[in-house]
Design goal:
Rossmann fold; 10 helices; six-stranded parallel β-sheet; 293 residues
C-alpha cells in the first residue's frame, strides 16, 4: 500500500505557487490578498481559518481574517462582503462555514463575487464546473485531483465510486472524475446515506472517494483489492486524555483498509492539507486575473 501523503504534495503545490509569484513580484506587482470571514467561535472553524492564514502568509500572500460576533445580523455580513467585492486589492474571499442558524448560508455564498469566490461555491462557478468551463473548482475536490496527478494514478476508463453528494465535495468530485480532462474520464457512481447495500457498489470501485462524515464507516470488506481509496472525511472525536481534548478520524477505517488498498490517504495528513493547497492555487488564479484586468 502506498500512502498518498498530503504533506508532500501540498508543499510542492505551495512551492510552485511561490516560484510563479516571485516573477510577478519582480515585475512590481503587489502580493495576492486572501480574506477569510469567521462568524462566531466554533473551534474547528477557528483552526481551519488560522491554518489558511498561516499557509497564505508562508508563501508570500497577504491574509486578513474578519472575526465577527455570533449574533451579527445577516445584512451586516452582506454589507461587508459587498465592500470586499469592490476592493480591487483583494483577490479571494471566503466565508467559513458553518454559519449561525439565523444567517442564510446560500445567500451569503451568492453574495461573494464569482471572480473572488476561491472556495468555488457560487452558482456561477458550480455551473461552469458542470459544463466543463473555466472557473473556480471547490477546493477539496481540486485538492484530490492534484493528489491523483502528483501520484500519476490512472483514472481513464476506471470505475470511481463517490460516497457523499454534498455541493462542497461529493457532487463536484463526481463531475470532475467523469469530465473529459486529465485524471478524469471515469465511469462514476454516486452513493449516499439512502443508498441500499452500499457495499455492493464500493466493492466495484477502482477508485473510492469517501466524503460521508461518518468516522470509520468504510471497512476492508467494502473495498475492492488494490483499489485507490481517498478519505475526505475528518471528524473530531472527543478524547479527554489528549492535550487537545480530541483526535481526528476519517471516514475510512485506516488500519483495516490499508491491508487491501493500493493507495490510501491518511487522516490527518491527507486531503485536508490538499484542500488548503488548492485554496491557495485558486487565490493565485484570482490574483492573476485581477491584476491583468
Amino acid at each position: 500500500m502506498i500512502l498518498l501523503d498530503g504533506k508532500i504534495v501540498s508543499e510542492q503545490v505551495k512551492l510552485n505557487i511561490q516560484q510563479k509569484l516571485a516573477k510577478y513580484m519582480e515585475d512590481g506587482h503587489r502580493k495576492p490578498h486572501l480574506v477569510a470571514i469567521l462568524v462566531g467561535n466554533d473551534g474547528a472553524s477557528l483552526t481551519y481559518v488560522n491554518s489558511k492564514e498561516k499557509n497564505s502568509k508562508a508563501i508570500g500572500f497577504d491574509s486578513t481574517i474578519y472575526r465577527l460576533a455570533e449574533n451579527i445580523q445577516e445584512n451586516e455580513l452582506i454589507s461587508l462582503i459587498k465592500e470586499l467585492n469592490e476592493n480591487q486589492a483583494i483577490d479571494g474571499i471566503l466565508v467559513q462555514s458553518p454559519l449561525p442558524k439565523h444567517i442564510n448560508e446560500k445567500l451569503i455564498t451568492q453574495t461573494i463575487s464569482p471572480d473572488k469566490d476561491v472556495d468555488g461555491f457560487h452558482d456561477i462557478n458550480m455551473g461552469k464546473l458542470a459544463k466543463g468551463d473555466e472557473g473556480f473548482v471547490p477546493a477539496t475536490p481540486l485538492g484530490v485531483m492534484m493528489m491523483l496527478k502528483a501520484y500519476d494514478i490512472p483514472t481513464a476508463g476506471k470505475h470511481c465510486v463517490v460516497i457523499g453528494r454534498s455541493n462542497i465535495v461529493g457532487r463536484p468530485m463526481s463531475i470532475l472524475m467523469s469530465n473529459n480532462i486529465e485524471f478524469g474520464n471515469c465511469t462514476v457512481t454516486i452513493c449516499h446515506s439512502k443508498t441500499q447495500h452500499i457495499e455492493h457498489f464500493t466493492r466495484q470501485a477502482d477508485i473510492l472517494i469517501v466524503a460521508l462524515g461518518k468516522p470509520g464507516f468504510v471497512k476492508a470488506n467494502m473495498v475492492k483489492p488494490d483499489a485507490v481509496v481517498i478519505d475526505v472525511g475528518i471528524t473530531r472525536i472527543e478524547d479527554l486524555n489528549r492535550k487537545s481534548g480530541f483526535y481526528l478520524k476519517g471516514d475510512v477505517d485506516f488500519d483495516e483498509v490499508k491491508e487491501v488498498a493500493s493507495y490510501l490517504t491518511p487522516v490527518p495528513g491527507g486531503v485536508g492539507l490538499m484542500t488548503i493547497a488548492a485554496l491557495l492555487e485558486n487565490t493565485f488564479k484570482a490574483y492573476k486575473k485581477n491584476i491583468n484586468a
